[in-house]
Amino acid sequence: MSVERPIVRPHLARLPGYAPVVPLSERAARAGLAPQACFKLDANENPYGMLDGVRDALQQAMQEAGFGAVYPDPNQTELRTALASYTGLEPAMILAGAGADELLDLTLRAVLAPGSVIITCTPSFGMYPFLADLNQLELIDVPRGEGFALRPDALLQTVQSVRERDVDSVVILTSPNNPTGDLVPRDLLTTLLDRGATVMLDEAYIEFAGLEASAQDLLSAHPRLIIMRTFSKWAGIAGLRLGYMLANAGLIADLAKVKQPYNVNQAAEIAGIAAINVADEIALQIDAIRNTRSLLFDGLQSIDGLDALPSAANFILVRVDPAIGSGRELHDRLASVGVFVRTYSDPLLAGSLRISVPRHDQVDELLERISGVLESAHST
User: Fold this and answer.
1) Cα gap 170→333, rounded to integer Å
2) Is the pTM of this model over 0.85?
3) Domain boundaries 22-50+280-379, CATH class
4) Intervals of the chain under pLDDT 50
């Protein structure tokens, strides 16, 4: 009698999967370089890493007998209280997760039945189409226009068209957008909400634009607004996986009932609370990254063959002159000299690269390596 493995549901078995970044050690080995000699600029991490105050809090917790031995608080009471202090919102309007990705998935599964619609505006975060496929949701894309700008009229028309089909939908926008770095115009956001659209606004990079650019002040008047945030970028703890969402208290209460009970691990909770406690110090890092972003932008613009887009995030999207090759070709050449940046399979981004902002002291060397690669490309 033959025994076959369990069969994965057909729609899941057909999925291509999400393409995450390759670990630094692996990329460095491919280039034949030591990791410390490389620039890891492909995942938008905080180049300064975890602040000492956060590290100290973790080390102190690890000395306690109960650390790691008991389950974390399923209600996230201390963490949500700290987040309430950080955001100025009530804890009832906040829910934490194992990264914002978990909360994106949880929310879409909870509010949209299979066959419902996600509306996105590419190019944007690759997790959105992945989640649409995972949850059997129809993905309707409203591609961005010239200079990767949003097209408000086309987006509003698409939302209206889906409503006329009497199908539930969620509009997902990212502000600042990944990978283009621009903010969602406030008047477009309020128009969508005033017309009854459910909008999931991904603010993963909002600290780099300034919290004053957040749309959280719209939450009280717009119960269909859902805001996603993360500690991965601004707080430098991407490896601990901690994100949170801001939304109507009723929605938060419903989602709290269906999330995994212990979804935020103890270390992530401790680090998140510690990061909030030293938020003023982290803000100095954010200021440094903003200043470095300006230097990097100017430097990239000065290099023949590159066209950098202004950014409100901690990365810059760079368009590559086709005369020197495709984005993929330049990506590979840079990788050979230890400069690891992000490239895309999306046809809209075939001629572009996304470069995370490095530390201030790394800018000159980074620009020298990029210039050297491009000079070599021009001479061949």
Assistant:
1) 39
2) yes
3) alpha beta
4) none
